[in-house]
Amino acid sequence: MHEGLLYDKLPGARVRCHVCPWRCLIQPGQLGVCRARRNTGGVLEALNYGEATAANIDPIEKKPLFHFYPGSLVFSLGTWGCNFHCLHCQNWEIAMATPERRADAQPLPPEAAVAMAQTFSCQGLAWTYNEPTIWFEYTLDSARLAKEAGLYTVYVTNGFITPEALDTIGPYLDCFRVDVKGFTDAFYRKLTKVSQWRECLAAAARAKTRWNMHLEVVTNIIPTMNDDEAQLKGIAAWIRDSLGDDTPWHLTRFYPNYQFGHLPPTPLPTLERAYALGREAGLRFVYLGNVPGHASESTVCYRCGETAVARQGYASRIVGLKDGSCAKCGSDLNFRTAASPPRRWREAAARPEGGRTP
Prior knowledge:
It is a single chain. Helices cover 24% and strands 23% of the residues. By secondary structure, the chain is α/β, with parallel strands linked by helices. It has two domains: 7-46, no CATH class; 51-292, TIM Barrel. The strands form six sheets. It has an eight-stranded mixed β-sheet. α2 (110-119) crosses α3 (136-148). The longest helix has 15 residues, at 229-243. The chain starts with 6 loop residues before the first strand and ends in a 10-residue tail after the last helix.
């Protein structure tokens, strides 16, 4: 049994988990909402620790991340379980799994994950495919080892994580690639079964301001669900005001999946209108996803108009980028690269374990 972190032991052998904002109160023998945590005799058990359902070598652009170590390879890992129950989930076979009906999983200790990343010449680790918070203890142990090995670390996340969990892994996490799925209570309740979606926004802002993580935002635009201008303008304004106008916003094309098989793929004009709204809101870097070959794939300097990174699908060519800035005019393009490492790691080395930035 692998004991979970961040929980309270309560009278009657009950436990309360504090990893995600559900903060589940779990009776003996019962599971939390994620179905991957169980109260075993008054101890919170992390059922999926070290159980990998997917392990792949990916281009970082597939996450999608366009301003973070462009052109690098990342060792991508997923497990089973999720704290959202999205009706359009493309990985529903693992996200909706249960202890009794687990997706095929193979043991992969943190040490082995880091070693495999190095063996296959990956520059970092990414926890993805399902919500990484679900195997929080495993990602924390792996991230610590990854940083010791000189690898970067990435959460591809829905952002549904508590402040205390984020602050625990914060010293070891470089990037927080977060989904902002919509911008209304009704939408989030219908799509994900979650009402506390503003906790996701707060976590993303905290990842940037407290931990100096690199942030990129993804919105999968679903016809009739979140393609209205009010929601798109709301997301764009929030990114600008809370994360900064240089934060990349990826607008991805929806394709029918899981319980949303009746909806059509997102029309290209809808995506292009969303792109225009993002630019009108003042966002400097807006990209369209799942439409290979579209002109919006490449990064263009907002000041001089020169192409910094040319992209075609997941392939990238760095043509005008120098130390995270435009090679022609010197404008900061908000890139995290090996040549522009975050100051945070030098500061973190001087802090005690679990310490927070001022």
